Amino acid sequence: MSHEKIPDDLFETAVEALIYGEATTLRLLLDQHPDLIRARSARPHKAHLLHYIGANGVEDERQVTPPNAVELTQILLDAGAEVDAVAELYGGSTTLGLVATSIHPLKAGLQKELIDILMDYGAEPDLAVAPDYTDGYLINACLANGRGEAAAYLAAKGAEMNLEAAAGVGDLDRVKSYFRPDGGLKESVHAAQRDAGFIWACEYGRVEVVRFLLENGVAPSTEAKGMTALHWAVIGGQTEIISLLLDLKAPLEIKNEYGGTVLGQAIWSAYNDPKPQYLAIIDTLIAAGAIVNPEWEKYLSELKSLPPRK
Question: What whole-number distance in Å separates Cα of residue 107 and Cα of residue 271?
Answer without folding.
Answer: 19
